[in-house]
């Protein structure tokens, strides 16, 4: 029995189980929903067991098929990786439950709502996300990024209307271009260092100029996928156009995967580059994203677009890590990862809540949800609680993340980033309140077209509450993060 | 000029031409072809840039190029499928669930 629970089984399983689930879901449309539920529970259990193993015995490594680096595929799970796996699993279960109901036709004129394709796409995305979190070399990261992008694009197009298909097309083309920039960087790294393993690149004594060129290309390519301003234009229509459970995955997790790779490149493969002006540039772009994304979120008329522009802003916070890491590595690292995890939960909750509004009212326009707050109490409770997170208010996980980032900014004497963080939080509070005001303070309310069942309300509320749990029960995750803070010695 | 220079330059040239077309051309089909030209450039670079001490051909870049080709075929197929779908949907067509009264 103990063999089955060894990391050598768990580590590949966390990738293979959702992959197998996707294959079954493709093969049998009728069994797809049941398969997805079972797969979700299994994957979550594996992620938790893996987390327990890492907490007890430190990071674990597995070489697939006993083929280690340089030719084989090595998987590695440390504290950050298991936190990501577990949070992804929590979001995964909620999304799976949600999707069992979301696609059911409720209006008489509705056709097939694409549920048949949703299940395999969603499980493929899950497998690719997990694979990225445990990947250790550049080429596997490239392949996994593609495995992530293709189903993500299809997910955007799932609704099938022109706007969604156009958004998916734009997302795909920009994403391919981004991947190719990344691959170009990989070619330069391999030629300069003779290795693809992140840890080995650092020790290879690669020529500094070649390293800088490669890192610039790879970071630019990934910035497209992470939707860093000014490469964010594809995100709002794509994330707003996908069906709600798809939007939750895309905005909560998929963009974060690209960011995680950027962060690992800068801290694991090329730690010396943090001295470069590029780190400040990424910080500046992040700051612009925080302010610009938030301001655009304030101007939207549809709930899903408000949330999508908010993702542009919240991704900006992540990139503030680069100018802060060198001077205040501890709080900058933990703060950024904490922000990433709590935002993933909160953003998924927001999109699930928006989807419930959409199903209840047949529309997510602010005008159309006017006054319905009291008729959809669970949904708007989820929206409000998750909104606390975006605004960085205690006791949410977002508060801890922003607090640590503020600490990092002030302790390293870079107060200007602290100003950006503070203004961004105020703007986030403003756009969350914009939606809540429409729902609660507008007098006229249209009748509900459909009372959302528990499958549409409970997952959103659960995720919103989890993002608060992350704020209240912060010590264990912070310890795990602290133990994996990058060693930045050049 | 020796092959060490010609082929990497060719790779950079292909990538550059593809990138220029990707940014400059508006038509979807052009963009799809453009990213494929970019991908060819990357493949050429992957195969000709890496140089390791010792004899023989380094298998790692070959494996990467093969995988890269598979990835690009899949991505191109998806892009073409979306383009076909897009061409079939005229503006304002389709089901606008989000804005429907």
Shape assignment of chain A: globular
Stretches with pLDDT under 50, minimum 5 residues of chain A? none
Order of helices and strands of chain A: HHEEHHHHHHHHHHHHHHHHH
Which chains have the largest interface? Answer: A-B, 42 and 46 residues
Structural class per helix/strand content of chain A? mainly alpha
Give the helix tally of chain B.
3
Mean pLDDT score of chain B, rounded? 84
The residue fraction in helices of chain B comes out at over 70%
- Spatial separation of the terminal alpha carbons of chain B: 68 Å
Counting copies of identical and different chains, the oligomeric state is heterodimer
Regions with little confidence, pLDDT below 50 for 5+ residues of chain B:
93-101
Largest sheet of chain B: none
How much of the sequence lies in strands of chain A comes to under 5%
Query: How would you characterize the largest beta sheet of chain A?
Result: 2 strands, antiparallel
Number of strands of chain B: 0
Extended strand count of chain A? 2
Shape of chain B: elongated
The fraction of residues assigned to DSSP E strands of chain B is under 5%
Structural class of chain B: mainly alpha
Distance N to C terminus of chain A: 43 Å
Summarize the structure in words.
The complex is a heterodimer of chains A (490) and B (101). Chain A is mainly alpha-helical and 490 residues long. In chain A, 74% of the residues lie in helices and 2% in strands. Chain A contains 19 helices and 2 strands. Chain A has helices at 7-27, 32-57, 79-102, 115-134, 138-156, 162-193, 198-203, 208-226, 235-241, 244-269, 277-298, 303-319, 321-325, 329-361, 377-390, 397-411, 415-441, 454-472, 475-483; strands at 60-63, 74-77. Chain A has a two-stranded antiparallel ribbon. The model of chain A has no long low-confidence stretch (mean pLDDT 91). By secondary structure, chain B is an all-alpha fold. Chain B is 72% helix and 0% strand. In chain B, helix 1 runs antiparallel to helix 2 and helix 2 runs antiparallel to helix 3. Chains A and B meet through helix 5 and helix 6 of A and helix 1, helix 2 and helix 3 of B.
């Amino acid at each position: 029995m103990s063999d089955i629970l060894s990391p050598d089984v768990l580590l590949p399983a966390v990738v293979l189980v959702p992959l197998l689930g996707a294959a079954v879901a493709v093969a049998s449309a009728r069994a797809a929903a049941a398969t997805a539920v079972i797969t979700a529970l299994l994957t979550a259990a594996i992620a938790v067991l893996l987390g327990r193993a890492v907490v007890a015995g430190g990071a674990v490594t597995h070489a697939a098929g006993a083929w280690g680096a340089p030719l084989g595929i090595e998987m590695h799970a440390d504290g950050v990786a298991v936190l990501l796996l577990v949070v992804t699993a929590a979001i995964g279960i909620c999304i799976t439950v949600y999707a069992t109901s979301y696609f059911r036709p409720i209006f008489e004129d509705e056709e097939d709502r694409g549920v048949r394709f949703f299940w395999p796409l969603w499980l493929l995305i899950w497998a690719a996300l997990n694979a990225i979190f445990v990947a250790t070399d550049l080429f596997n990261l490239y392949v996994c990024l593609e495995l992530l992008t293709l189903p993500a694009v299809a997910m955007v197009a799932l609704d099938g209307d022109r706007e969604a298909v156009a958004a998916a097309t734009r997302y795909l083309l920009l994403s391919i271009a981004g991947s190719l920039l990344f691959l170009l960087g990989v070619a330069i790294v391999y030629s300069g260092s003779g290795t693809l393993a992140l840890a080995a690149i650092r020790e290879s004594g690669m020529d500094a100029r070649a390293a800088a060129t490669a890192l610039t290309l790879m970071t630019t390519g990934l910035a497209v996928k992470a939707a860093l301003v000014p490469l964010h234009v594809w995100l709002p229509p794509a994330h707003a156009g996908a069906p709600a459970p798809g939007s939750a995955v895309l905005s909560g997790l998929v963009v974060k995967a690209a960011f995680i790779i950027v962060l690992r490149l800068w801290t694991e493969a090329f730690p010396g580059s943090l001295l470069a002006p590029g780190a400040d540039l990424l910080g500046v772009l992040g700051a612009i994203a925080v302010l610009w994304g938030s301001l655009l979120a304030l101007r939207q008329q549809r709930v899903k677009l408000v949330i999508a522009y908010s993702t542009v802003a919240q991704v900006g916070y992540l990139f503030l890590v680069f100018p802060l890491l060198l001077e205040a590595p501890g709080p900058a690292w933990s703060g950024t990862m904490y922000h990433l995890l709590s935002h993933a939960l909160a953003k998924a909750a927001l999109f699930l809540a928006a989807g419930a509004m959409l199903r209840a009212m047949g529309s997510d326009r602010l005008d159309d949800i006017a006054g319905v707050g009291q008729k959809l109490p669970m949904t708007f409770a989820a929206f409000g609680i998750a909104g606390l997170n975006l605004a960085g208010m205690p006791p949410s996980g977002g508060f801890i993340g922003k607090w640590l980032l503020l600490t990092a900014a002030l302790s390293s004497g870079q107060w200007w980033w602290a100003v950006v963080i503070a203004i961004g939080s105020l703007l986030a509070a403003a756009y969350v309140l914009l939606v809540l005001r429409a729902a609660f303070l507008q007098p006229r309310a249209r009748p509900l077209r459909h009372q959302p069942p528990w499958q549409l309300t409970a997952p959103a509320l659960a995720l919103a509450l989890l993002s608060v749990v992350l704020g209240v029960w912060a010590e264990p995750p912070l310890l795990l993060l602290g133990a994996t803070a990058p060693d930045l010695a050049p | 000029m020796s092959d060490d220079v010609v082929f990497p330059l060719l790779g950079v040239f292909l990538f550059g031409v593809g990138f220029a077309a990707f940014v400059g051309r508006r038509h979807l089909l052009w963009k799809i072809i453009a990213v494929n030209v970019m991908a060819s450039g990357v493949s050429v670079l992957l195969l000709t840039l890496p140089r390791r001490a010792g004899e023989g051909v380094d298998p790692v870049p070959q494996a990467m190029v093969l995988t890269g080709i598979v990835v690009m075929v899949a991505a191109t197929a998806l892009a073409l499928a979306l383009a076909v779908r897009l061409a079939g949907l005229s503006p304002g067509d389709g089901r606008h669930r989000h804005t429907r009264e």
